[in-house]
Design goal:
With 169 residues, this protein is α+β, with helices and mostly antiparallel strands. 27% of the residues lie in helices and 25% in strands. The strands form two sheets. It has a four-stranded antiparallel sheet with strand order 1-6-7-8. A four-stranded antiparallel sheet has the order 4-3-2-5.
Length: 169
């Protein structure tokens, strides 16, 4: 489980990346169109035992979307299996919930709506050279309100769904 927390923290390493590489291709538009036409735009707010607060979403956000980019070397992120969250949107990291002494949240179990915005490829600073993540950024005002309610500063990055990872060959 500690390895999973490290992975989440590593994925968050792109927080400091100033200029993510935006996907400017046929696939980006296809991915967003597929999401709007075929996938739900909501999930359930949850908090795990380690303190990760996230929106659990349909796993097809990864299983179906990665098909658009797998020919470019992207594979599903390691979010599946026992004790893992599957497709999700991170709302607060375990480090944030610990630092801000976040206890129980009455919002857990609540339906959260979001709107997909863009597709981006980022190179997280905590990862090795050439390693990248493909994200679908989302607009979710409710998530900003929840962070604000618990006095957690505004994110330095956009809420997103990690749909693929590409490792250096």
């Amino acid at each position: 489980m500690n390895a999973y927390i490290y992975l989440i923290a590593s994925l968050m390493g792109f927080i400091h990346q100033k200029d993510p590489i935006l996907i400017k291709s046929y696939y980006s538009e296809q991915m967003i169109n597929f999401i709007f036409s075929c996938l739900p735009k909501h999930g359930i707010l949850r908090k795990d035992a380690q303190g990760l607060v996230y929106v659990k979403i349909d796993n097809n956000y990864i299983h179906k979307i990665v098909q658009f980019i797998q020919h470019e070397g992207f594979t599903p992120p390691p979010y599946f299996g026992e004790g893992k969250h599957g497709a999700h949107i991170t709302v607060m990291t375990p480090e944030e919930t610990l630092y801000y002494a976040l206890g129980d949240m009455k919002e857990c179990g609540r339906l959260i709506k979001f709107k997909p915005k863009t597709c981006q490829i980022v190179s997280p600073e905590a990862w090795g050279p050439g390693e990248q993540a493909c994200l679908v950024t989302v607009e979710a005002p409710t998530l900003h309100q929840i962070r604000e309610k618990y006095k957690i500063p505004k994110n330095k990055y956009e809420f997103h769904i990690t749909v693929g990872v590409r490792h250096k060959n």
